[in-house]
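User: I'm curious what two different proteins look like when written out as structure tokens. Can you demonstrate?

Assistant: Sure. I'll show them one after the other, since each token string lines up with its own sequence. Here's the first protein:
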Amino acid sequence: MKKIIKDWLNKYFSDPQILILVFLLVIGFVLILTLGDMILPVLVAIVIAYLLEGMVQWMQHHHIPRNASVISVFLLFIALLLILFIVLLPMLSRQIGQFIQELPSMLARGQNELMRLPERYPDFISEDRIQQMLNFIVSEFTYIGQHILTLSLTSVRGLISILVYLILVPFLVFFFLKDKSILLLWVKGMLPENRGLATRVWHEVNQQVSNYIRGKIWEIIIVWAVSYSTFMLLDLRFSMLIALFVGLSVLIPYIGATVMILPIALIGFFQWGLHVDFIYIMSAYAIIQALDGNLLAPLLLSEVVNLHPVAIILAILVFGGLWGLWGLIFAIPLATLVHAVLKAWVSTITKPVSEAETLAQP
């Protein structure tokens, strides 16, 4: 048994570049797990700068100096933030306030509609089953109300955190873009010299993830706009709020679209009951999801993150369990990292990284 374990270790961990790659990954995950809350503004700024870097490089490709490109992209980023806080957030806050105010009347109307079901379909549903459903809905909305009250009681602390983020994150984003080469040179100086395998993994992950994120941003915007237009056309209440969550749900493949069925169905049922308008809104949502899954997503993300659906769902469950909401959002990029590591690891076992590749590190 010892010989089998020893042979396995020699086969898969004898290459020092594999050990360096594993060491770097372990250090990165440990830092995020232990210091993630404290350095969260830095991590958010790194992600935003990573996204904006694509626009900077595009402007440089069109012969615009880097400093001018950085300033232009950063000003565009600030303008988008101002639009978000001046236009969109007030609209969303108004709809959230209206939703809380109208929730009791919506629940009462929904209860009346549900109590009519045993009369219409006595062979399929009973009053006891309806009462159980009502108790469940009331308990869930009571929990949501208590959670909102808890958030309001801690609003001062949350407001301070938001102000800190609004100051620190743009500041960090600007310097991450402006001094990218200096910062990367400093980081590379701290890394081991024999890191050819880690460099190969980084190049593959960088290409895949950058294309994936850019595609997802466009997918969110398009799905949000189409959903908002459709919900407004069908006169669904709180259309902006619901459309926002429908757009963001594409970040969590399969699960996000499935979860959004419940709030849309509840609001549609509370607004219209079992009316033809309720069928229209559910059919419209199904069509939006079908077009997104079969046309929009393949068009924007063709040949990007070529992972099996089972691997994607497993990544969502694992990373969501580890890091909650952030794990769900970044499940696909993290799964891409794991896939690239395993692919490079296996290829190194069969064909070690060449000396020329090692010396050609950036």
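Here's a second, unrelated protein for contrast:
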Amino acid sequence: MSVYGRARPQTTDRLRDVVELRLPAESAYLSVLRTATAGLAARLDFTLDEIEDLRIAVDEACALLLPDARPDLPLTCRFTLEPDCLEVNVEATTNAGRTPGRDSFAWTVLTALAGEVDASADPDGTVTITLRKHRGGNAEA
């Protein structure tokens, strides 16, 4: 397991904090991601309900990826902290390399909990689920 953080400049010359966790692609390590999610959302002054929604959403995103994840490669979770938004990218190299179905119940749950949800797959089989939760439910237009 590795953990590191870094700051990257935005186009507005502000700095965003980025925290990345790499864990074994096993459900036994998901409690680490839930705890990190809660701590980082609290840092952005999310409400307790918003924090719990994010914890569940990150857990659900991992649950979508882990069944097909290659066990020899890590599950990566990247948190990007903005003034009123937390973006979470959950990424795993999978055997099939397919994104989750957007018409599934799990996708509906993710959208309800996180607000903005997207998924992509790279040719190497890496699947990324991106969650964006705005504090107070305010999405930027």
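A detail about the second structure: The beta strands are 2-9, 15-24, 74-82, 85-93, 116-121, 126-134.
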